[in-house]
Amino acid sequence: MEPAGPAWPDTGAAERAIARLPPRLREAVEWGASRWPGRIILNSVANVVRIELFDRAMTIAGQFFTSIFPILVLISVIVDRNDTKRIADALEMPVQTQSVLSDAFGQPSAASFGLVGALIVLISATSLSRALTRAFATIWRLSRPKTSLRSAWRWLAVVLTLALSLVVVRALGTFLEGAPASTVWRATVAFFCDLIVATFVPWILLSGVVRARYLLTGAALYAVVMVLVRPASTLWLPRALEVSADRYGSIGVAFTYLAWLYCVSFIFLAASVIGEVLTMDRGSIGQWIRGSQETSPTAV
Fold it and tell me: Average model confidence (pLDDT) for the chain?
């Protein structure tokens, strides 16, 4: 049987919460909720509470750190053999901090990984995919996904996509540095890379149950916000890494990256939440996003 698609938002909880407000405040909230901006804000706040956004963002950040970084090390070992410079460039790591990275990983070699070690790294990294699957299933009101070996290729595809996207965006940015209006071109490339990744990841993890068209709104919001966040992180992150490395060594670098990853994970999930609210709204904008589709299957 084909899995059920996303369900319409449940407005019962919001209506019950509004009913408990004082009369004057209730009238103002009801007036705002009857219009598109107020309805979107109210439903977005309700969904943030429903999916426990702050806790999930921290979980995703921790899983990203323990999953993607080892894959980057593995890619670096395969491509550059004993050189960790590719990782440092992909993570925008300053020169002063690269020695900490080398000490932390002990200059791994291809022999130290081996086929079994590489498989262990890849299998362990799929924990990030499973955490993301649970998060997106909750956002789109789908039934709790069942863990199955048939989904293993989807998990591997996601973690490899996320790891390679870091390297590709950095490589394309470096390639465009000498081009006219390089800042605009680099921002454009980063935007479309983020848009593709943020659409592909939930689509493949949810086995295509949620249409790519539905996912584009949240992906576009994420890509737009990241266009603004990337320049700020470029200025803040290297400096924060240097200070952390000087004061606390490799553990300080790890905590700094966790803080940065938490911000990115929060933006990613928050954009998905707002994208779901905009897409599943029954108003004209929601209909336009869905392609004027009036009906939606009910999730089981």
Answer: 78
Secondary structure of residue 222 in the 3-state scheme: helix
Residue 75 pLDDT > 50, yes or no? yes
Please indicate, yes or no, if residue 297 is contained in any of the structural domains: no
Greatest CA separation for the chain? 71
- Distance, CA of 170 to CA of 186 (rounded, Å): 9
Could you tell me which residues come within 8 angstroms of residue 110 by beta carbon, excluding any fewer than 6 positions away? Answer: 77, 78, 81
Which amino acid makes up residue 217? Answer: T
Instruction: Determine, yes or no, domain membership for 205.
Output: yes
Query: Could you please report the per-residue DSSP string of 225-294?
Result: HHHHHHHHHHHHHHHHHHHHHHHHTHHHHHHHHHHHHHHHHHHHHHHHHHHHHHHH-SSHHHHHHHTS--
Phi-psi region at 264: left, alpha or beta (left = phi > 0; alpha = psi -120 to 50): alpha
Could you tell me if residue 267 is inside a domain? Answer: yes
pTM of the model: 0.80
Q: Please give the residue range of the domain that contains residue 272.
A: 12-290
> Percent of the chain beyond pLDDT 90?
25
1 in a structural domain: no
What percentage of the chain's residues is helix, strand, coil (to nearest 5)?
A: 80, 0, 20
Alpha-carbon torsion (8, 9, 13, 16), positive or negative: negative
For helices 212-248 and 182-205, what crossing angle results, to 10°? 110
The structural domain count of the chain equals 1
User: 153 to each of 130, 158, 166, 178, 204, how far by Cα in Å?
Assistant: 12, 9, 20, 38, 10
